[in-house]
Give the backbone structure.
Amino acid sequence: MESPPKRVPVPRDKNKSCDRSASTPPPMPENVGTDTLTDGLIHSEPGSPQRRALKQDILPLEEIKRMVHKILDKVEQDLKKKETKRHKSAASRRQKRQQRAETREQERRAKEEAKERWRAFVDSKRDDAKAILAAVDAEIEATKALRYPPWKETIVRYTTEERRILERMLDEGLVYHEISQEVRESITGALNQLSRELEEDKEAFVGVLRSMHARRIVLISHVFFSLDSCDDFEGS
């Protein structure tokens, strides 16, 4: 059996297989550039400037976590602000609705109170008219005992007209709702006509009786026109 041939050492400078070590890169083609980062990384050795530059551009994990938490905190704060603003807006709307409801209730109560004051005012004027009517009826009864026909006829004519005006005022004039223009003009015309007739009957009327009827016409007019002059019952 033949023994294997002995290996004869060869000097390193004469060994062609050692011309290129494992760490030596293969020759590059002439048309391939080496100035780009990719080319530099591909053909760079560990610890080369290109590799160190890439490491510097990469953020550490803790820094990335910190940035993510910062963004999440900002988003959460924005959501809280929006939620707070939404709650404030809802509370403001509720407050405005409540204020409007309270205003409507106050207006309703004010109208009701005005109506009550108006009714009480009209009732007081109706009581005044009834009191004047009672005085007219009393004069009518007293006139029946008069024996002087001219005076009797004159007094009866005036008291009858006064009574007619007062009754119409109670039926159509002194009412809670607004009276018609026709009724207003009719009662006003009757009072003016009675005043003119009383002024023309100076000779036919005794001074005391004439003054009494003149004051009565003034009272009747005051009761009737007081409804127009009263402006303290808005909403009635």
Summary: Residues 114-229 form one domain. The chain is about 70% helix and 0% strand. Residues 61-143 form the longest helix (83 residues). The mean pLDDT is 78.
